[in-house]
Amino acid sequence: METKIYKITSPHDEAIKEVGRILEGGGLVAIPTETVYGLAGNALDGETACKIFSAKGRPSDNPLIVHISRFEQWTPLVKHIPDTAKALAEAFWPGPITMILPKSDLVPQAVCGKLDTVAVRMPENEIALAIIESAGVPLAAPSANLSGKPSPTCAEHVIEDMTGRIDAIVDSGDCSVGVESTVLSLVTDVPRVLRPGKITAEMIAEVVGEAEIDDAVFEKLREGQAVSSPGTKYKHYSPEAAVVLVRGDFEKYASYVRENAAEGTVALCFEGEEEKLCVPCVTYGKKNDPASQAKNVFDALRAVDKIGAKKVFARFPESEGMGLAVFNRLLRAAAFNIIEL
Fold first, then answer.
1. Nearest to 98 by CA among 209, 172, 198, 227
2. With bands split at pLDDT 50, 70 and 90, how would you rate the model's confidence at 236?
3. How far apart, in Å, are the Cα atoms of 302 and each of 121, 155, 239, 272, 284?
4. Nearest to 231 by CA among 69, 114, 58
5. Helices of type H across 151-249
6. Are the C-beta atoms of 191 and 210 separated by less than 8 Å?
7. What angle do CA 277, 278, 280 make, to 5 degrees?
């Protein structure tokens, strides 16, 4: 398959109409969002959903997120929109939060991983919104990478993974957030965060009174447990190199790296720490700045492979607020392999 590349920097670009026609016709297009690049296809067509799974090499039990460009597009996708959901949408949409509600019959089972719920969000990226409008249908869009690899935060990442697998890639530069949206289940008594992101549980609780964080954010899925949200698989976001997450202050971390370094060892650390370590380093943001960590973590996980890493010792981020999103991604990149110092 030939994959066309569209360089689009404005929501008014004429090329958006052509991209919309590809999507309307059942094609697959990688599009930018504020979080990561998404692999988009018609969310109302089960065959298109199957093509998305095939292009990514993604298990079909892993549900897709449906992206809309206007509030009124939400109503036909779900059985009912409760007041809680309306309040959250008013507070955070367009933006990086996905809400799960019981699905309507309009949404194919293939999109939802055969669950009776659907995950919906309205992205903040203006080009993404324009593309959805041009397509004329909601778009199912998981991250535009091969399944299991670090999510793509720039078009170059998508080109590496998806060239020859999909119809087109829209290049609109770097994503501003860098980790996927918060996924919030609204089918429980208390709203429950299934995947952390920029919109934190604390921010959600300020709007609706309370919010819980699901155990799946911190733990492996149990054997046979259904996948209720993207990003909850045992190993995910992973480079080819083996990742080990190291918890401890910098002095203990540096000592551990020094004592365990071998050929192919790379340190995944914070900016400014490289000169104090004895192995090649890749940084993923500033120590006390989870927003910069989120923006850089996936690029850093791809960079360790480019320099030939065999084993990666990753600095442990703060696990509160937006830092929880970074911790969650690194935890799965490391397949829950943590060293406590």
1. 198
2. confident
3. 27, 13, 6, 20, 11
4. 58
5. 155-162, 201-208
6. yes
7. 85
pTM: 0.95
Q: Alpha-carbon distance 73 to 107, whole Å?
A: 12
pLDDT in tens, 18-67: 999 999 999 999 999 999 999 999 999 999 999 999 999 988 788 999 99
> Alpha-carbon distance 257 to 339, whole Å?
11
Helices (H) and strands (E) in the chain, counts: 9, 16
The full length of the chain comes to 341
Largest CA distance in the chain: 58
CA 256 from chain centre, in angstroms, equals 31
Strand order, beta sheet including 117-121: 4-7, 168-171, 29-31, 38-42, 139-140, 65-67, 117-121, 97-102, 182-185, 192-195, 212-213
- Which residues touch 289 (CB under 8 Å, ≥6 apart)? none
